[in-house]
TrEMBL record:
It is found in: Cytoplasm. One of its GO terms (cellular component) is cytosol. It comes from the Bacteria. One of its GO terms (molecular function) is acyltransferase activity. Residues 31-153 form the Gcp-like domain. It comes from Aeromonas caviae (Aeromonas punctata). Keywords: Acyltransferase, Cytoplasm, Transferase, tRNA processing. This is tRNA threonylcarbamoyladenosine biosynthesis protein TsaB. The keyword Translocase does not apply. Belongs to the KAE1 / TsaD family. TsaB subfamily. GO terms for biological process: tRNA threonylcarbamoyladenosine modification. SUPFAM superfamilies: Actin-like ATPase domain. InterPro entries: ATPase_NBD, Gcp-like_dom, T6A_TsaB.
Amino acid sequence: MDELKILAVDTATEACSAALMVGDTLFSRWEEAPRDHTRKILPMVQALLDEAGLSLDELDAIAFGRGPGSFTGVRIGISVAQGLAFGAGVPMIGVSTLAAMAQGAHKLEGAEQVLAAIDARMDEVYFGHYALVDGVMTLVGEEVVSEPAALVQARDKLTGAVSCVGTGFETYGETLGGLADVLMASQVRFPAAADMLPLARQAWFAGEAVPVEQATPVYLRDKVTWKKLPGRE
């Protein structure tokens, strides 16, 4: 059986990353690079392919950070992934950025229960609760965008110690602390393409890869109220 080869790219947050799985071998690049994603992501991809000695058309699929996250960042990621997948003639796999952070906490710290929250601006967070199932972080309930206080009021408190990842806990940690008896801070602040690969692999074997034209982002927030700057009303 040929080794499964999946390339993953993510630009949905301040981090920019790419990773390549060739069977059990992993190649990866990651950098915190706000507002510099368009310049960095393709060189990262090329470096990975060169390191692995592969060309794009040898891949089985291309995974991408589908969001939630920065609107611009999510669009950059899916556009780059679609361009690569179209050129290579391979399908695509969308992976939640929240799930990727939870997977990162499991890999780095052995976490088995994780709350992931990305600062969504406008006093809201993108939020998801994940639990480990067969080595992969699996969503419990739904991913949502919510005011932190409303989120705490709407959810039953989790018992025991729970790991927390993402910038949402840095910004609203005092409020979000009410989600669990004990919240253990993780070193994971942003998603990484390398942590998307176990999720992408699971999706591949579940038959969830889609044609390029069917790949879609997940913003969670459907409508945005743009606040005009002073003097520009």
